[in-house]
Design goal:
elongated; 163 residues; mainly alpha
Length: 163
């Protein structure tokens, strides 16, 4: 398959960095909101969890999908390839883990919080399902954000050589 020109590779890199910024920034934002913002009214609680859901739907998901698509293009249309370098393999594992875990666990958990907060308001804090979901999101959402940050460092440092 024909490879991209150096100028086209720069454009691809710019779009990849933009998508990474959306995904990582959104993940850090959602994680941070959980730890540092406490609701005092029904509306505040609903506002907090619904904005977390908004960030997930309109910032994290497009960023993750953009990373996936630009990563596919990098692997296919540039000399970097799919499995030439160990660090690329690790980044693919992190990317696929992030998308799959986010799609089937983190996103639905966040949606559950929105529904409970909308119907129960501050009484959500007395709901065991709400509290256990918050804990799951704190643990696994923070882990996901941390792995995405690690992927950024791996991409910059390229710590492992060719296979």
């Amino acid at each position: 398959m024909k490879k991209l020109s150096p100028k086209s590779q720069k454009w691809l890199k710019a779009f990849h960095i933009l998508c990474v910024s959306l995904w990582v920034g959104g993940a850090i934002t959602v994680s941070g909101k959980q730890f540092f913002i406490q609701a005092k009214t029904d509306g505040e609680l609903y506002g907090i969890v619904s904005t977390m859901d908004y960030v997930d739907l309109f910032i994290i998901i497009p960023g993750a999908l953009g990373c996936f698509v630009t990563g596919l293009m990098y692997s296919t249309l540039t000399p970097w390839g799919w499995f030439k370098y160990r660090w690329i393999i690790v980044k693919w594992i992190i990317c696929l883990y992030g998308i799959i875990f986010g799609t089937y666990f983190l996103g639905p958990w966040l949606g559950k919080l929105v529904h409970i907060a909308q119907t129960q308001g501050l009484a959500s804090y007395d709901n065991p399902q709400f509290n256990s979901t918050v804990i799951l999101l704190m643990i696994f959402g923070t882990f996901q954000a941390a792995t995405l940050i690690v992927a950024c460092f791996i991409s910059s440092l390229k710590p492992w050589g060719k296979r």
